[in-house]
Specification:
The chain has a single domain (about 1-145), classed as Butyryl-CoA Dehydrogenase, subunit A, domain 3, CATH 1.20.140.160. Helix content is about 70%, strand content about 0%. The protein is built from 7 helices and no strands. It has helices at about 1-20, 25-40, 50-65, 85-100, 100-115, 120-125, 130-145. Helix 1 packs across helix 2 and helix 2 packs across helix 3. The termini are far apart.
């Protein structure tokens, strides 16, 4: 289990952090609880990442709905990275994401971060492809409307 958690931690962290923002650690913890509790129900080991992604998105949206903090703490954004990052831009993006609904963050993560197609995102979320298109359009418009680089 230790090796599994170590392997999945960065992947789950990116998903949960982008959707649940300041509560990303809580969402990540809830994700791992669900993964470890239900691991024996995974029938196809090759589908592990997709299965974990589904759980992570669900938990991150659930945790984010529980309430978002109004302010962004830039100290929580510090990560070790190979390439230098512009912390101000990260804070701006994170602040902009905080103004979006958890469902909007989820669709942005699935399409723009994870690179899922509209059809795959629709299957993943259990909605029609047209719903994904409209949600994505509204989420991107809301992000651009709030973005102040």
């Amino acid at each position: 289990m230790d090796a599994l958690v170590r392997e999945l931690m960065p992947y789950v962290g990116r998903i949960c952090g982008a959707i649940a923002l300041d509560r990303g650690d809580d969402a990540m913890q809830e994700t791992f609880i669900a993964v470890l509790r239900n691991l024996r129900t995974l029938r196809e080991p090759a589908a592990l990442h997709g299965w974990v992604r589904r759980i992570a998105v669900r938990e991150a949206v659930r945790v984010a709905r529980g309430g978002l903090e109004d302010s962004v703490d830039p100290t929580t954004l510090a990560t070790s990275a190979v390439a230098p990052i512009d912390v101000a831009t990260v804070v701006d993006v994170r602040s902009t994401l905080a103004g979006l609904a958890p469902e909007q963050r989820a669709i942005l993560v699935l399409r723009d971060v994870e690179g899922l197609s509209e059809a795959d995102a629709a299957r993943f979320l259990g909605v029609a492809e047209g719903t994904v298109k409209s949600r994505l359009h509204r989420a991107r418009s809301a992000f651009v409307g709030r973005w102040e680089p």
